[in-house]
Write a structure and sequence with these properties.
Layout lengths: L6 H4 L14 E2 L11 H8 L4 H5 L5 H11 L8 E4 L2 H12 L5 E6 L3 H10 L2 E6 L8 H7 L4 E7 L11 H14 L2 E5 L11 H6 L3 E6 L12 E4 L2 H10 L7 H11 L2 H24 L3 E4 L4 E5 L4 H10 L2 E2 L1 E2 L9 E4 L3 H16 L2
Helix pairs in contact: 4-11, 5-6, 12-14
Length: 355
């Protein structure tokens, strides 16, 4: 007799990121191309002793410091740490999703929303971008029905970089409340775009904000995500989560990062300077480019985007291209320091200038 496989998992199609990226110039996955300051990393590594490694993770000390770091009256009861924000998404979908009911997102957006819908047997209802790369808020509201259990919106959205106003988000929250749905606001790119919907997560009964330490905070390897909401929602998420989820090394690095707000501000400054540099240079060279509000930009090469992506990879420079009709003429470039942007552009101008 053949073993049992859950039908939802069996029928889920997955595409995993490329590997063997160490030592390459990485502008393809919205990481920090250069990472945290080396002296800071070395100082934290000295704290990882044999005793440290032998103890199960204890997240509360970090979470209390994180609450102070983000302010807004956030306390420990408003927070839960997870193994990356993608695990937070899984927990939220498991907790508030209902098999056969709807999860509403825009399209395209972060791929793990769709993956989790498939794995858990949830209907993924997508609201496509308009041809001018905008989202119709009216179409988004129309997609929220009595069958909706979760509305998941990444702000700024990856890959296109659109953002939502307070008025738009309030309309979404009210419509979701009317039908008994939660609103997940994914703020993975918050520190590159100052606007936050954190106050809504604290005052509304159906709003959840998630953040990550993989982007600005530059510890993607450690896997750490934070969920922020009212105590009742946090209680339900904790009921379904693993006992030991976020690992101690991730928690230690995150604790030391939030203890140094001046380092965080410097990381923000470096990214903003790098983005201004690359956008100005591209425009001077006659390129169409788009500030996507996160730590990435859209760029339309003068030659075929897929061919340019391949040629860049041949030169050990990684960027992201797209197969769908809306975006197939663009490449997405992760942003870092002026120095890293200069390195990228030197190769890009050579490759895209070839006939």
């Amino acid at each position: 007799m053949k073993y049992y496989v859950d039908e939802h998992i069996k029928n889920t199609e997955r595409i995993f990121p490329e590997q063997n990226r160490y030592g390459l110039k990485r502008f393809d996955m919205n990481e920090n191309p250069e990472g945290l300051p080396e002296d800071f990393v070395n100082s934290v590594l000295k704290e990882i002793t044999p005793e440290f490694l032998s103890i199960y993770p204890e997240p509360d000390r970090f979470l209390r410091k994180y609450a102070e770091f983000i302010g807004n009256g956030v306390t420990l009861d408003n927070l839960v740490a997870t193994n990356g924000s993608d695990m937070a998404i899984r927990y939220i979908f498991e907790t508030f999703g209902e098999e056969g009911k709807d999860v509403v997102t825009v399209s395209p957006t972060f791929g793990m929303y769709g993956v989790n819908c498939s794995v858990l047997g949830l209907n993924h209802v997508t609201v496509p971008y308009e041809p001018d790369l905008t989202i119709s808020i009216d179409k988004l509201l129309d997609a929220i029905t009595e069958n909706t259990r979760i509305v998941a919106l990444l702000n700024p959205n990856n890959p296109v970089g659109n953002i939502y106003t307070d008025e738009e988000m309030e309309k979404v929250i009210r419509k979701a409340q009317e039908v008994g749905a939660v609103v997940l606001i994914d703020e993975a790119y918050h520190y590159f775009y100052d606007k936050t919907f954190l106050p809504y997560a604290l005052k509304e009964d159906n709003v959840i904000v998630i953040r990550t330490f993989s982007k600005l905070m530059s510890i993607a390897a450690c896997r750490l995500g934070i969920t922020i909401s009212n105590p009742e929602i946090i209680h339900y998420i904790k009921n379904g989560k693993l006992t030991f989820d976020a690992n101690s090394i991730a928690l230690l690095f995150a604790e030391r990062i939030v203890e140094q707000p001046e380092m965080v501000e410097n990381l923000i400054r470096i990214e903003k300077e790098g983005k201004a540099y690359i956008l100005n240079s591209l425009k001077e060279h006659g390129y169409w480019c788009r500030d996507c509000r996160g730590n990435f930009i859209f760029l339309e090469p003068k030659h075929d985007a897929h061919e340019i992506t391949r040629k860049l990879a041949d030169r050990d420079v990684l960027v992201h291209d797209y197969g769908n009709e809306l975006l197939n003429k663009y490449i997405r470039v992760s942003v870092g320091s002026v120095s890293s942007m200069r390195e990228f552009l030197e190769v890009f101008y050579e490759v895209d200038g070839e006939q």
